[in-house]
Amino acid sequence: MTAVLAVAVSVLPVALFLGALVLIDSYKLVALRAVLLSVAAGVVAGFASYGVNEFLRPALALDFTRYSWYLAPVVEESLKAGFVVYLLMRSKVGFVVDAAIHGFAIGTGFALLETLYYLRVSDATLWSWIVRGFGTAIMHGGATAIVAMVTKALQNRFDVFRLYFLLPGLGVAVVLHSLYNQFLLHPLLAAALIVLIFPLLSVIVFQQSERVTSAWVGTGFDTDQELLRVMHAGQVSGTPVGKYLTTVRSRFSAEVIVDMMCLLRLRAELAIRAKGILMLREAGFEARPDPSVKDKVAELHYLEKSIGKTGLLALDPFVHTGSRDLWQLTILDG
Asked: Do residues 185 and 54 both lie within one domain?
């Protein structure tokens, strides 16, 4: 019973906070299975951190205190950030708000494993487990959320991902982690500050990100819908898209030009479907699965191969391949 109580008070706060982040995301940008995958990634990062720490500390001949102050935060935050890099490189994150959810979920998985480890090797008091739950666990989640949010904000600014975008957020997370480990404040006071600061920061980030999401969904929906309208009406020739294709048709065969038109139409259809799903979620409804989506995505990939890299480069002014444009296709997977 003591072990169960220790796990409960040290894991329940961070789990509830993660659940709250998912619930207040009105667009439901992160599916439950994606949240659980990030939690699992945090567990993996925890195992990896244990192995690296067990190797480095004796190899560098550092005592436990100094290692936990200066090197452990670097190792642990870097390994937790590894899955953040994967998500951003694969365009699995569209906005700062879903970056925060993924980051906090990774930290939650890490904290869960760390709690189970300390439960095995420590006979700490109930107050120690409470501090671990409200302080250490949320610190792990919050630190990785900061890495994810800052990195995603930089990616949005330049509309491309570069590995060095990770450094500012990672630096902040390492410093916060190190300061927390040094017990500059009484553990209960430190836990209280974390419980106050991270929720406030999350609310600010979520409010700002939801405004950005709403503007992006509305503007993009109207643009894609207008493109489909003129294509279905056979009025493409008078649009910027039609005029542009006229200027490049001498460089490509008629078949490739037709494939380009089909690609533009298909991307617009899928983009409208993705944004429509987000609108329904924001209104509190869940979109029904569309059985034709999988075939359309397969056709999209076929057209991209058929057109080739040169053709896609020629379409670059109209076929947007920014992080959000690629991310919205993941919405269609549910």
From this structure: yes
